[in-house]
Amino acid sequence: MNALRSISKRAEITSTSFTNHYEWGDLKADPLQLLGKYFDAFIYVANWGSHRFCLRLPKGLWEYKELQAMLPNGSAWIRRSAKYFIIGFENENEEEEEWDDGTGWMRSLVSLRSDLLRDDLSCVYLGWLLCVQNGEVPDKQPEPPVPAGLNQLSASLGSLIDFLGIDKDLVAVAAANSAPFNAGPSRGDLGIWIRNLPENEKNDLLMTAISESGDRWKSELLRRFNREKKPSTSQAVPAAGRTAGELLSAAQARAERRNRRAQADRICKEARRKAKEEAERAQYLDQLAKREAAVWNAVIACIQQRQPKGYDRAIHLLIDLRDLAIRQGHETEFPG
To answer: Quick check: 178 and 147 in contact, CB under 8 A?
Structure first.
């Protein structure tokens, strides 16, 4: 905390967080270096639409090349240090209409780190889709394995899509090849797997569960179970030979279909509104016909007031009388 305070006198610093807001200038430090040294997650939001989200993860969970294939740099990337991987996502959301001060994004996104520790690479796959969207992936490049449950997005994955401005039509097209989501292994499957572990490993697991705080030990245990049992609960399905270009074309076609449906719905809605107004107008004019003479007298009275409000009222009444004459087929008799 002292080291962080030496960087910024104005930051809000706690034992678990470092929050800063700048209207002029910028942070006098490299955020990725701070992330690698002190924190597990980093979020940056700028008023011109720049959004950035990074996660620090322990090395050894995956092969570096495995993640690098899905994070091709640009809008989604991966870096490595002696102890950690840092995964980053960034985009420019130029179409934002309201000022976003960044409040609340960390709370809605940070659980994606727990997903990764459980071997759920859904957010990494979404990062690849963002690179496809931004033209950073060759059209002929094959799609990586599609995570299960992409049709049933968690709240944190939905927040990532909103935060980065990922095309929802592109996500929907990609999700067509996603297997149903499995909430996790059954108690019975876990019991069988644990009983078959060597005695010394089970003793180590009990010691870890008792001595370690937090859920990291549990995430690592479930990750090991998922990798040893086939199929894994988060196992991705084959991509059926789709390429980045094919996904983009399918997303564009889906957007066009959606826009046509929306346009048709607007036309139908407008037609219903117009029909309703015409019916109400007709009903009003039918009622007006029963007191036409009184309305003519009201027109004369309004004009005789010689006041702006009276003239305005007379004009409205005359319009009603003209429409009544047209409805009755007497428009030629209506005095001009």
So the answer is: yes
- CA distance linking residue 161 with residue 73, whole number of Å: 18
Distances (CA, A) of 29 to 53, 76, 82, 318: 17, 22, 20, 74
Q: How far is CA 317 from CA 124, 308, 320, in A?
A: 67, 14, 5
CB of 127 within 8 A of CB of 89? yes
**Which amino acid is residue 170, in one-letter code?**
L
What is the reported pTM? 0.72
Task: For residue range 129-172, list pLDDT tens digits in order.
Answer: 999 999 999 999 999 989 888 888 999 999 999 999 999 999 99
The two three-digit tokens of residue 67, written as one number: 């993640």
CA separation for the pair 249, 12 (Å, rounded): 46
Residues ≥6 apart with Cβ < 8 Å to 143: 128, 174, 239, 242, 243, 244, 247
Query: Where are the chain's structural domains?
Result: 291-336
